[in-house]
Design goal:
By secondary structure, the protein is of the alpha+beta class. 26% of the residues lie in helices and 29% in strands. Strand 6 and strand 7 (80-86) form a beta hairpin. Helix 2 packs across helix 3. It is globular, with a radius of gyration of 12 Å. 17% of the residues are buried.
């Protein structure tokens, strides 16, 4: 995974496809994964450039996570990575 691939040993979280079609605020996803304990902490993580969706840095605290059915790679900082599975 450190070489940029998505390893099989990544923590995995699931979100309903219907929920992601409508969009889920990134702040809420960070709380659901446990990488932020509050909306303020999630906001600081995003503002500091520590949040990535599919290896793209997110700087907008109002970012909404959407999916057309494909799994999403979520990163918080340099060492926390997870795969969001769509159910």
């Amino acid at each position: 995974f450190e070489e940029g691939s998505t390893g099989d040993n990544l923590p995995t979280f699931t979100l309903p496809k219907a929920e992601l079609q409508n969009g889920v605020p990134l702040i809420d996803v960070l709380i659901k994964t446990g990488w932020a304990t509050s909306k303020g902490e999630a906001k600081r993580l995003i503002e500091g450039g520590g949040a990535k969706i599919n290896d793209v840095v997110v700087s907008n605290v109002n970012e909404v996570v959407r999916s057309n059915g494909a799994d999403i790679k979520l990163s918080a900082g340099k060492k926390r990575h997870a795969l969001i599975k769509i159910t």
